[in-house]
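Hey, can you fold this one?
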Amino acid sequence: MPVESSTCGLRHHAPWFALDDEFARPIGKLPFPCAILAMGEMLVGAAIFACLAGASLVSLMVHERFPAHHLQDDTSAVVRLAANLFVVMSSLMLGLMINSAKNTFEAINGNVHTFATDLILLDRTLRHY
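Sure. Predicted structure:
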């Protein structure tokens, strides 16, 4: 059954289990621009990394031109505390995301095991009859 892609407007044949699911389509089957659009999360991560690396390099170059009151210990302590706050919040969010993914995996794994057990019981019942 042909399904129209929402990202590129292309038509393709989707398998029976992915009739309307755009995330189930393999990226290798899409043309090059559409494959780049499908990797949006990777591009966002790379852009954030590039911005942070650029900001750190710029701050290394501009560091010597700061006024003396910006180079005191109090200022560096405040900057250090703010950086620690970002690190703690990032690690908390990463831990919550990993926990959510683990719970989802365990739920799906339990459903697969239940389905397999039901199939085995059905097979045994049909053999009995």
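The two ends are 38 Å apart (CA to CA). Let me know if you want another pass with a different chain boundary.
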